[in-house]
Design goal:
heterodimer, A: about 450 residues, alpha/beta, D-Maltodextrin-Binding Protein, domain 2, 2 domains, four-stranded mixed beta sheet, 13 strands, B: about 290 residues, MetI-like fold, two-stranded antiparallel ribbon
Chain lengths: ~450, ~290
């Protein structure tokens, strides 16, 4: 009998050691904080007793599905989590985050059918759900498990505060930056300098146009977001840019008017008003276009990583933005719903699952050199030249600011997007377009 | 009385009524209600009060320049469908009916576009019209000519109309051809004995005897034009360029689901229903399908 007990104790000790070594949610501290698979408790007679996770089904939803670059990484986490926690069944309903998905998520929350853990937005687009008060705060999560968001940067936490009450509910993982991607080989071919300022941008535009190369790939009718944001941001001080004014500020008008200057200069393709974003991106990838303003998520799709570089958006004389200001930040994170929190078994499982996805090791995997990372990045790493270029650009961002649509209602910002072709072609003034957006925003 | 017991009829009718109620009438009435509130989401979150805005959306409807464009394009499409869809279908049906061999082949060929999904057709034509390396511009380049912006503001409506009209000619063709086949041969034989030529028999026999079928086709074509959505959306999303190719259906979808303006989208949806009822009544009044002339 004693031998059998010893054998069981040895096996459990081995299992415990292995669980500490594998997976990032099972460190020493976690085990003592009920964080591991196997919970070890001291009984009254001094002997050790083990108990497994309580059986439960955890309903989780993330945006890491379909074409998302992290779909495989996330699936591996789920697979490992299932192995480590055989009593917990993960019901994964992850899907690509499009408009239909958002409506589906909101419908689930409104019908009290919300998931237990969800990776969702933290900005204005999450306002409806946040107003319904369905999530536990990050503070509550950390009170239960201090490992949660232990190394998350202050910047990431600041930028993922709820737009409703300013509290932190989500655990951020990775962020993004937006920057000007350039086909450096085309710049070299025509002896052009990279567009580090507005004059160089204009020179490049003229030269490329003369040589039948589309200077800037853009789908103005589809995704003009980055141009709207960068033009208004560059013309404004940070305070001016992040405000929600009643009437169009001069700096916003000055910045947005630059789109017409560029249009008149021939910076865009002839079909800029009709081409969709995918086709515009393809012209850049196929070397038919020299530049494209995109986000860090675009890094993965660029085939020529050797000859593509990322630059800061060029500033013009009189631009009021500080050097190093760029649209960058964190806009999503992992939430735990109150519904899961009220069920002790699910609460523990949800904390474990969030930790499995937001521990340093996993965040670094999700980051993979693309965008911003919410935890410290160790030296070295196996990155391609474009990722290195992106990382260097990210280092130059000293003043990250969120995009305009993170502060405006979707109706308002989309109203401005709808008018971008009219503004660029001179059929509508930038002032009228911005005022129209602000008017819709104030009504909603 | 065909059926003495009525309850089996009711048992069979009630499921249909429930389905209509749940999936048509309830959303329709709910949609009317939504148009009076400020809604940034299609979902009403518990505890979140919606802001009542009264007739604000209806006032905006009359000031909205895009709704005027959408209405104009939809009415233009109605006229084009009658001329090109029903008109061409009539011509093709008469021609095909007059040939003895290969009738089945033409039936299949003309009907084929109807069974292809609009998304596939949209993508096909999108690749035809693409400015950078699209099929049409490749042909022009081979001929040594400059590429054309097929979806420019001046050409976009025409280029979108072509696949919309072409794709449904076969549908009306089959209906009309079936109608022609129902005309007894002895009428034509009697006319031929009296010296009526093939051309005259079309005007004096075929078309008059097809009146009922043609009226149905015109009503279907006109009301169908109001529902045009998938092909224009695939070819020129969001009314590109610059909102000039919006139809009522695409503008409603764009407002509600691209711009998340669900209350105004509901207003446009109700407007489409009102326009649809007026148009179908007007067509009924003009063509008088039940009247014996």
């Amino acid at each position: 009998m004693r031998k059998t007990k010893k054998a069981i104790a040895l096996m459990l000790a081995f299992g415990l050691t292995m669980s500490m070594m594998t997976g990032c949610g099972s460190s020493d501290e976690q085990t003592t904080n009920n964080g591991g698979n196997t919970e070890t408790t001291e009984t009254t007679d001094g002997t050790e007793e083990t108990s497994e996770d309580e059986a439960c089904t955890l309903n989780v939803v993330t945006m890491m599905a379909g074409e998302d670059a992290n779909t495989d990484n996330y699936n591996k986490v789920v697979e490992q989590f299932q192995k480590d926690h055989p009593n917990i069944t993960i019901e994964d309903n992850s899907a690509t985050a499009d408009n239909d998905w958002k409506v589906q998520i909101e419908a689930d929350f409104s019908m009290d059918n919300e998931p237990d853990v969800i990776q969702y937005f933290t900005d204005k687009s999450a306002e409806n759900i946040l107003k319904a008060d369905k999530f536990v705060t990050l503070e509550e999560m950390q009170a239960e498990n201090p490992e949660i968001a232990k190394n998350t940067s202050d910047v990431a936490l600041e930028q993922t505060k709820s737009p409703v009450d300013g509290k932190n509910y989500a655990v951020p993982t990775t962020g993004y930056w937006e920057g000007l991607f350039c086909n450096k080989d085309l710049f070299d071919k025509y002896n052009l300098e990279l567009p580090t300022d507005w004059d160089k941008l204009e020179t490049a535009v003229k030269t490329f146009k003369e040589n039948d190369i589309v200077p800037v790939a853009l789908a103005m009718n589809d995704v003009p977001n980055y141009w709207i944001e960068f033009l208004m941001m560059t013309a404004s001080t940070t305070d001016e840019f992040v405000q929600i004014p009643e009437k169009a500020p001069k700096s916003w008008v000055e910045g947005l008017s630059k789109i017409k200057d560029l249009y008149d200069l021939g910076a865009f393709s002839k079909d800029v008003a009709t081409v969709d974003n995918e086709m515009a991106q393809n012209t850049f990838k196929d070397k038919k276009a020299a530049m494209i303003l995109e986000g860090s998520w675009f890094l993965n799709g660029v085939p020529d990583t050797e000859n593509t570089v990322v630059c800061a958006f060029p500033r013009w004389d009189g631009a009021k933005s500080e050097e190093g200001t760029a649209i960058s930040g964190y806009s999503s994170g992992f939430y735990i719903t109150k519904k899961a929190w009220e069920d002790p078994a699910k609460k523990k499982a949800a904390l474990e699952f969030v930790l499995a996805n937001t521990c340093d090791k996993q965040i670094l995997t999700y980051w993979g050199g693309n965008g911003a990372c919410s935890v410290p990045v160790p030296e070295g790493g196996d990155f391609n030249p474009l990722q290195v270029s992106g990382a260097k650009y990210a280092e130059t961002i000293k003043n990250p600011v969120g995009p305009t649509d993170s502060r405006m209602t979707p109706e308002a910002f989309n109203g401005l997007k709808d008018n971008m072709v009219a503004i660029a072609t001179g059929k509508m003034s930038a002032e009228k377009g911005i005022n129209n957006m602000l008017k819709i925003n104030s009504q909603k | 009385m065909l059926y003495k017991k009525k309850w089996p009829l009711i048992v069979f009718l009630i499921p249909g009524l429930i389905m209509m109620g749940v999936f048509l009438y309830y959303p329709f009435i709910s949609n009317i209600g939504n148009s009076f509130y400020n809604m940034s989401s299609v979902v009403r979150m518990p505890g979140v009060e919606l802001n009542f805005i009264g007739l604000e959306n209806y006032k905006n409807l009359f000031k909205d320049p895009y709704i005027k464009i959408a209405l104009k394009n939809s009415f233009l499409m109605m006229i084009l469908t009658v001329i090109f869809q029903v008109g061409l279908a009539l011509v093709f049906a008469i021609l095909v009916n007059s040939i003895r061999r290969g009738q089945q082949l033409f039936r299949t060929l003309y009907f084929f576009p109807v069974v292809i999904s609009a998304s596939a057709l949209g993508l096909l034509f999108k690749l035809f019209y693409d400015y950078n390396g699209g099929m049409l511009n490749q042909i022009l380049e081979k001929m040594g000519k400059e590429p054309v912006m097929w979806l420019s503001e001046s050409l976009a409506f025409t280029m979108i109309s072509i696949p919309v009209l072409w794709s449904y000619v076969g549908f009306y063709f089959v209906i009309i051809l079936t109608g022609i086949c129902d005309i007894p041969d002895d009428v034509y034989e009697a006319a031929a004995i009296d010296g009526c030529s093939g051309f005259k028999s079309v005007f004096y026999i075929t078309v008059p005897l097809l009146r009922g079928v043609l009226c149905t086709c015109i009503t279907l074509a006109v009301t169908g034009a109001l529902k045009v959505f998938d092909l224009p959306w695939m070819l020129a999303e969001k009314g590109a360029p610059n909102g000039t190719t919006h139809f009522l259906g695409t503008y409603m979808y764009h407002t509600a689901f691209s711009n998340n303006n669900f209350d105004y989208g509901s207003t446009i949806a109700l407007f489409i229903v009102v326009v649809g009822v007026i148009v179908s009544k007007a067509v009924d009044f003009i063509v008088k399908p039940d009247k014996n002339l």
